[in-house]
Structure formats: C-alpha cells, structure tokens
C-alpha cells in the first residue's frame, strides 16, 4: 500500500465515522464514546497483568531485529515487552468495548425526542469522527509495533498515519508510556 493509498483510506475512515455519527445521533454516539473511554481505561489499567500471562501463551517471533522494528514509535524499552502489552491492551479494550456498547444500546429511546433531533444529529457526527479517529490511532499504533514489514512500511510512509501516531494529544504519550514504561512484566 502506497503512502497516498493509506492517506486516502484514513481520510475515508474518518469521514465514515462522521457520517455514522450523524446517523446515530449525539445520544447514541455519546454512549459509544463513553464505552470507548471506559474500555480504554480498563485496558490501560489491566494490560500489564494480562501481558505477563500472554507471554506464557504466545511466543515472540525469534527472527525480529529489535533495532529496526517500530523505531519511529518507541524511544526506550524493548519491542518484546511492547508487543505483549499491545496484545493485552487490544484484547481488553475490544472485549470491554463490545460489552459496554451492548449494554448502552438499551438507552437509544432518547434519540427520538423531536426537540433534540438536529442537535442530536450534528453532535453525533462530531463524536463519530472522534471515535473513529481514536480507533484508527490504536490500530495504527498496533500496526507500528507488529514486527511485520508489510504492515509497518505503509505506516512509516504515510504522513497522515505518522501524524496520527506521533501527534495525537494525550493518547500518543499515554500509549507510549503504557507499552514501554508501565506494567509489571
């Protein structure tokens, strides 16, 4: 995948997030965002514990040169530690997110109030964009850590992907801290 193809794909995903949010509306999208934030917090807090258990179940590839892998993402720490924390984070994040979204879907009756319909629609669009942006951020970050050059090369060559991974307020530093400094291994 070339730089421009990945950039176009990222732009399309972000626009689809906005359109999806418009269709869902603010209230339903707020439920999705809150479940997203709670999922992030749960994954952030417990990924270190799960990572130490995953280390026993999933072997780290032997043929990886740690200096060349994801060097544009990590300043310190080992790729192996980050690899297990990343897998643990993804498992916890997506499992928690699915459970909370299912629970939150019960509250969708509020989206049909006539007074709030327009505000609900545009607010949902904004929240949809934010939700997809964060999902794209996490997927790009995971892709940057996975020791496969077919995944890392397009990310490293995409100006939008690099910008998302390195310059997202708070999340860029929080994820880097999570996967390189924190977590008992």
From TrEMBL:
InterPro entries: Colicin-V_CvpA. The chain crosses the membrane at residues 6-22, 27-46, 82-110, 122-146. Pfam families: Colicin_V (PF02674). Its main location: membrane. It comes from the Bacteria. It is a multi-pass membrane protein. One of its GO terms (cellular component) is membrane. Keywords: Membrane, Transmembrane, Transmembrane helix. It is found in: Membrane. This is CvpA family protein. It comes from Priestia aryabhattai (Bacillus aryabhattai).
């Amino acid at each position: 995948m070339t730089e421009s193809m990945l950039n176009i794909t990222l732009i399309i995903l972000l626009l689809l997030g906005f359109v999806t949010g418009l269709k869902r509306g603010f209230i339903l999208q707020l439920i999705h965002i809150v479940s997203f934030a709670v999922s992030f917090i749960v994954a952030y807090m417990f990924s270190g514990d799960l990572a130490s258990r995953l280390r026993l179940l999933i072997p780290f590839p032997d043929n990886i040169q740690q200096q060349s892998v994801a060097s544009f993402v990590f300043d310190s720490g080992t790729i192996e530690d980050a690899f297990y924390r990343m897998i643990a984070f993804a498992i916890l994040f997506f499992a928690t997110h699915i459970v909370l979204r299912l629970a939150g879907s019960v509250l969708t009756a509020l989206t049909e109030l006539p007074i709030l319909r327009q505000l609900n629609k545009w607010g949902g669009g904004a929240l949809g964009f934010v939700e997809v942006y964060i999902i794209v951020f996490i997927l790009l970050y995971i892709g940057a850590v996975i020791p496969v050059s077919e995944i890392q090369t397009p990310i490293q060559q995409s100006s939008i992907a690099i910008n998302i991974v390195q310059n997202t307020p708070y999340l860029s530093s929080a994820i880097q801290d999570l996967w390189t400094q924190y977590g008992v291994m």
